[in-house]
What does this fold into?
Amino acid sequence: YIITYANRPIATFALQDADSDNAKWLTYVYVDESFRGLGIGTQLVNFAKEVCRKINVDMILLDTLTPKLDHFYEQRGAKWVCEDRSLGHPTSLFRMGTH
It folds into this structure.
């Protein structure tokens, strides 16, 4: 999914299949720096939840590539699962219900 403003891409995210039929990975979440702080990230998360509900997916999984994003996702209903170091640096794995 790509969000545009004045024909310019300003934000993106993807929902990818997980090992479970009842879950999707939320990936490639990005908001252009000049548009941060306007609530677009929250709208992206809410829209991802809506898409998942429509296709009967109950769980969204995500991996924060930077710890400073952990709080953002927690405020939007994500629950911390564990720390992952498979990328060579610590990241946090979260799960979030779609309802």
